[in-house]
Amino acid sequence: MAIIKTKSTPPREAPLSERSLIGWMHKHLFSSVFNSILTIFTVCVLYITLKGLWAWGIVDAVWIADSRRQCFEISSGGACWAGVFDWLENIFYGRYPRDELWRINLGGLLLLLWIAPLWLPRVKAKVFIALSTMFLYPFLAGYLFAGGGKGVFMQMMISLSILCLLGNTLHAAIGMIKGISLSEFLTRLFSKKNWHRKTEHCLLLGLFLICFCVVYFWQMSWQIEAVAWTQWGGLFLTLVVSGIGIASALPGGILLALGRRSKLPLIRILSISFIELFRSVPLITVLFMATTMFPLFMPEGFALNKLAQVIIAVCLFNACYMAETVRAGLQTIPKGQYEGAHSIGLGYWQTMGAVIMPQALKNMIPNIVGSYIGLLKDTTLVSIIGLFDVLGMLRSVSKDVVWLGMHKEPLVFGAILFFLICFAMSKYSRHIEQKLLTGHKNVTANKRKK
Amino acid sequence: MMNDAITSIEREQLISAASNEIIIEMETVNKWYSDFHVLKDINLVVRKGERIVICGPSGSGKSTLIRCLNHLEEHQEGNIIVDGITLDKNLKHIDHIRTEVGMVFQNFNLFPHLSILDNLTLGPILTRKMPKLEAQAEAMKYLERVKIPEQADKFPGQLSGGQQQRVAIARSLCMKPKIMLFDEPTSALDPEMIKEVLDVMIELADTGMTMIVVTHEMAFAETVADRVIFMDQGEIIEENEPKKFFNDPQHERTKLFLSQIL
Amino acid sequence: MAINDNAKPSKPICSKDKFDFFNDERARSFLYQFMTAVVVIFCVWYLYSNTAHNLAVRDMSTGFDFLSISAGFDPSFTLLAYEPGVGTYADIYLIGILNTLFVSVLAIIASTSLGFFIGMMRLSNNWLVSKVALAYVEIFRNTPLLIQLVFWYIAVFSILPKVRNSIDLSAGAEVLLLNNRGLYMAWPVPGDLFWMTGLALIIAGAGVVFFRRRAKKKRDLTGQVTPTFIASLALLFFLPGSVYLLTGSPLSWDIPKLEGFNFSGGAALPPAFLTLLVALTIYHAAYFAESVRAGVLSVNQGQKDAAHAIGLKPMQMATYVIIPQAMPAIVPPMISLWMNTVKNSSLAIAIGYSDLVSLFMQTSLNQLGHAIEIVGMTMAFYMSISLFISWMLNIYNKRVQLVER
What we know:
The structure holds three protein chains of three kinds. Chain A is mainly alpha-helical. Chain A has 21 helices and one strand. Chain B is of the alpha/beta class.
């Protein structure tokens, strides 16, 4: 009765129906009569749409021309991308003085330089790098973009941020080469073995002060030309507004979310009403409120420019949305985590900062990035209240005498531009999520899903 | 009146327990998950009334094997004949076989939005076209058989794991299946609940039901099974009567496995 | 034994005789709240005094008297009878609200249906169909609604033909005409005895309900299935139809006619309205499709296995197992998407559809000032919609909890 298999069967390759292209097509496209009809129908629809788009956007399109009239002469049925190319600088930089464009580019480069270490594997103290980007970079970039005379405060902040940027870069380089942080490197370089920790700290502080003074005096020697905010525009303005919104939304959102979950009734009620007020109204009404009511709220003689009003409105609005995202993240944290943190004696802020928030934010990365994408898209609304952001510039192409009446192409270009940015952001957030997930979840769980 | 009908069926099953009628036949069945070869040349014959226990290390393809029997998974090569019907792409055959084969899952898979009674009557009403009242009466009978008639109006979430698994068994029985498949029915349960589920299963075995059970409960295998099948890496390594299987395993891998779990 | 049992705490952590103000929980919570209150009150007072001062300096009046002033401008689209110069700003407010609600409700219905359809496509086991749906979702979710809106307005609705060359959507009957002035359609005008047809419709509806109940009862008792669908459709169709014919077809159509440069008669929807409707529908359908998909995918695979194992067919599995369980995951995001649709309808301002924001917050505010009152009233409207929607959500959540316990 007993059956025993002595030889084990070696695994064979799957039959052709499992792995060949035809097998795959049979399984995924033509598994039943209905599915086959559906596939053929979809192919037809796709063919017609894509063919039309292809012809309009690529084959019949005009890439080089001097005016819309010329476009029409070359090809009447295609897109006139020449107009978009002609306006490219305007779309990206708005009416910013052409001689000063290097400032915007430099600002972007400095930002890249600042945050690049976050992606380098061996660099330490990444939280510090991120925080310094959030709090110091705006001063440097703000001055680069606006220019003009510097007040004492501005001078301090600018020198601080230049110093910080230099330190950051050095820190990253040392980290990549030796795997240690800058301060550690400096202590090893200068201090002697028998030095006390306190002396080491004093040394570091001294070094910092010396560098600070050098930078401070250096930056006093130059000044850049002022550019009025009315000249800001294009994608640059969109990125400035949304960048400030993105940088401030998370801290604001965390504070509001904590306030909403606070045990203190007054703080809770205030947070709830603030959040709900902003979440229940459209952004455009908040923008209108900012431009019509801020002047009334401010003391007489104190005039805030429109850009600042808009930025404040965008920040408040998005902090409230972020608060709800953070709250949803906090709700995913089981009670045991709080109990665990309390049991090792952590206080409220320590529990939140070291245990709860990191997990909550990690769980919410796709949602946080989702609301960033929403913010970026919503920024186009500032064109309604008269700022020349990227949409404003795209719409003014058609008012240019040379390109009069050309509406479609700039808008399609703008849509593609936004799509690329937003799609990249959301894909990247999924990638990070996957990367973080693999550490926690069992990989074999996915095996059964064919 | 219904009672009589049931007992007569049960009697029939008891008589046929020793019969030679073949109810399940697997011929060189092969299955792949994309490139992974999960079932390798499986040959298995089950007679009516037989009780078979399948064991083996995790990932050996036990669950996949019994999931193929009611076409929850599709096999790519070989034949599976259940109750005289060959499993192929014909949807009618699949529907028919699924009403003839009951299945109990590791995680119970009760429908959380339906009450216990509705869980039990859903299948009979929809697939057997049974009148609702009759289906409910029937369902109550099976709930009594698994000893929890008082829970009929509750929802699955309000029951303990053992109770839920017993409800799941009753749900399968309501379809009056010819074959019952159990996919590790006790491995998601707390130790003190395992016994109540095993008791129900032993009782079911005594009625002469054809059963295929994937489990690591060796005591259950020893008392109930007619045959024990040991699987590893997607193939049947050893097949024997329970006494011989446990006392005198032949294959090296069987010995290793038994030494680890006993 | 490494643990020293006799060790006493070297310092009592909480001594009763010394009241430590800063570490007492209640005192601390009071202090925090007191400080918050002081800051908030100061801010409110500061803003209030500034505003009062500014208003006084600029010699601006406050109060809601302006609502009874007659508004001199003409909202391009209105659902109410309104005459420029006679109607007041209160009328304008009302017209704005109605216009916003009108386009939002239509957009909600359309986007929910389209989104459901796209979501189903996304879940299809046909690879191509599911990828097409994915492309739809990604494209429309990752571009700003405002760009889409302007694009539809300029690229699609502005290239519609002139009035004389209107596109006839009703294939020659000239009851549904599309041109660059908008969509013109025939409008029914009920006659004297039309109420009888309505009554017949109600009776037929009641009959269908009764009929289906009986069929269900019969099924519960005997297990026999009575096909009800065709019978009830016939009842719904023939009873009102025959009454309508017997009473002498008491319904006439007001058909749009070309008079001079424009159509008169019938009902007309302006291009801005159509654009807004199309843009809102397409944009929100993409979001809704994703929530449908997420909801359906949230149902455990084991549930499907179990439904298969008891022999349910795909349709039965969907209606009795999948949908009831997916609904609690779909409905809350769906309701908040509805809220978003109402809010996003305010983008109407970019293409000149006269919704609440463009009529009241822009035009009226420019004409009158009264920023605080007008902004407040506009926001109050959106907030009450939001309250209404969260009330609906609460009711739904309570019902779900009741069912699943």
